[in-house]
Amino acid sequence: MSAAGLLGPDTDAEMLAARLAHAQRLGNLGWAEWHFHTGETTWSDQVYTIFGRDPDKGPIALPRLAEHVVPSDVAALDRLLWAALRCVEPVQAELRIRRGGNWSDLRDIRVVLEPLMGDGGAVGLHGVIQDITGRRRAERMMSESRRQLLEARERAAEERHVMLALREAILPDLACSPGLPDIRVAVRYVPAEKTASLGGDWFEASPAPDGRLLLAVGDVSGHGLPAIAHMAQLRHALVGLAMTGRPAHRLLDWLNELVLHQIRDTTATAVIGHLDPETRVFAWSQAGHLAPVLVRDGTATPLDPPRGVLLGAAEGRPYELATTRLKPGDVLLMFTDGLVERRTRDLDVGLDLVMAAAREVPGRLEHDLETGLDKLLADIGGPNPEDDACLLGVGILG
């Protein structure tokens, strides 16, 4: 004899009822019946829990069910009841109810109804009611999250478009030409891959009134529109100050005063130099910036940097001037830190990659410089995900 047989029929029924009750709690669902002729209504225990109703008050009669449904869903309840009476197959709908009659505790429920059939047709309704509040709440949260994400992406795309347009309007033509017969200049401006990281990198390559070639690269701290605005102030100031013909270290003195007193709460780095096309002497100064790299006879070497602190870091700290005489076939590379710095590698590793790739940049023929800069960028890993990179190459044709 089985164990169920030893327990007896009453015990079997109790165990089955307990299991059904447990299943209803796990699924947060229960059943209900409404009889038309007798007016009798029967609810399982879980339906009382779903409605937040005291079992001592008894179930809610069918005519009064609409009182517990939010007004906007009453029409859906009516359609559900009529459909249940007309159909043999079960019908369902989702409704919102006031749990315990409390407007601050609205619950989402799914109601499945089917007619109780008698000899003359439908004599009542049988329903299964499930509380799906948690599921719908999660879906609404996901939908809201998707909406916010989409809006954020649209705002970011719009901001990026504005920043790119502004930066292109501020910076000179990337295909700039100094108009000097034995000097070729090429520029590569590589925007960061991430939208929020558009920053204040800048360059300048233009003839000065005395015939020398003004060369400069720089980077303003920060990202986004504020950094681009500060970059525009700094670069335009340099272009104006360079008209005085003063040497690079004096220009940095003035730019430092500008950042300290007019572009507050920011700092900037820069390399500024003048290249004399007759003597091929490059006279340059730096403000906390990476030194230019000289490529000569297949060897890449950083120039010895003269003394100079960040723009905006301190007042009264003089900037020094250094000079380097270039030769035919030389290439001078000036770049911002976005070219070498990556979160995924040390700065020294990035510098080593640039130095190795720079050895392959030729400068004797005019078209070689353009191709060489493209190859250098590819060899060091392409665009920086977190920061812009500006690379200015100057070739002395031979």
Automatic annotation (TrEMBL):
Entries under InterPro entries matching the protein: Bact_Sigma-Reg (IPR052016), PAS-assoc_C (IPR000700), PAS-like_dom_sf (IPR035965), PPM-type-like_dom_sf (IPR036457), PPM-type_phosphatase-like_dom (IPR001932)
Pfam family, one: SpoIIE
Superkingdom of origin organism: Bacteria
Domain PAC: 91-144
Record keywords: Hydrolase
SUPFAM superfamilies reported for this sequence: PP2C-like, PYP-like sensor domain (PAS domain)
Protein name: SpoIIE family protein phosphatase
Organism: Nonomuraea bangladeshensis
